[in-house]
Design brief:
Length: 259
């Protein structure tokens, strides 16, 4: 999302991976991938980690940002990468929007903590819990957080006011996938995002930000989740529905009109 928002597509190439159904982790879809800045060709992401550090034994995860000049991994932590994209490439883009402005940083950090624990972690807790008690706890946290966010968004266009910030884009992927993936596959089935007036309008508002629709591939996300080797137990059958129209009108412009 941030790569698109900051118009860094020509500066930071994007290479997609999927979980290999035969094992081996993140895979370049059966193709041989030439590692930028090197002569090496790889098929799995773990080979990139070994190329950066032959003694690496940690977790191999996505997204991973690679420095072609220094021939090493810069980060595999989403929160760090979006901060880099927000400011570290300023000289390479004409987009000067700051999604982490100094005067809002305290509020953004607090909102990020709410979203991380109450939505992102809670969703995963529902989908990957090993006991009924753990599932119930995550389920309750998730939907109480949605109720809280629904109330916040009744009084402002975005999470930290009437301008988009980093906090909105850390929440967006979970909302975007929720009705088609988490509601069904992760057993988060109390309510859909479509059932929350403010959250659903807010989601469409973000989706309609220039460039985001083209960078948001729901069908690919569904395949990654439901395919063999994905994060939840599945027979590989990908649900066809539901039909969600993110391009239809939203009501979030009312906050600008009120201002």
């Amino acid at each position: 999302m941030f790569r698109t928002l900051k118009q860094l597509e020509d500066i930071v190439p994007l290479f997609n991976t999927v979980q290999c159904p035969d094992g081996g982790g993140w895979w370049f879809k059966g193709d041989t991938h030439k590692v930028p800045g090197t002569e090496a060709s790889i098929s799995f992401l773990h080979e990139l980690y070994a190329l950066a550090d032959p003694h690496y034994t940690g977790r191999v995860s996505v997204p991973t940002i690679w420095d072609a000049e220094k021939k090493t991994i810069v980060s595999n932590e989403s929160s760090e990468i979006i901060r880099m994209f927000n400011s570290a490439f300023a000289e390479h883009t004409d987009n000067d929007t700051d999604y982490y402005p100094a005067h809002l940083r305290g509020e953004i950090d607090a909102m990020n903590a709410i979203v991380l624990a109450g939505v992102n972690d809670a969703v995963n807790g529902c989908g990957r819990s090993k006991s009924q008690i753990a599932y119930d706890e995550s389920y309750d946290i998730l939907f109480s957080t949605f109720d809280r966010l629904e109330d916040i968004l009744s009084n402002r266009r975005y999470l930290c006011g009437n301008v988009q910030t980093e906090a909105d884009w850390r929440l967006f992927p979970s909302l975007f996938r929720f009705d088609s993936i988490y509601y069904i596959g992760y057993k988060c089935n109390k309510q859909r995002i479509e059932d929350y007036p403010n959250l659903s309008n807010y989601l469409r508002d973000l989706y309609q930000t220039p460039g985001i629709a083209e960078a948001s591939d729901l069908e690919a996300a569904k395949i990654c989740i439901y395919a063999p080797g994905g994060p939840i137990a599945s027979n590989g059958i990908v649900p066809k529905g539901p039909n969600v129209d993110f391009s239809r009108a939203h009501d979030r412009g009312r906050f600008e009109e009120a201002a």
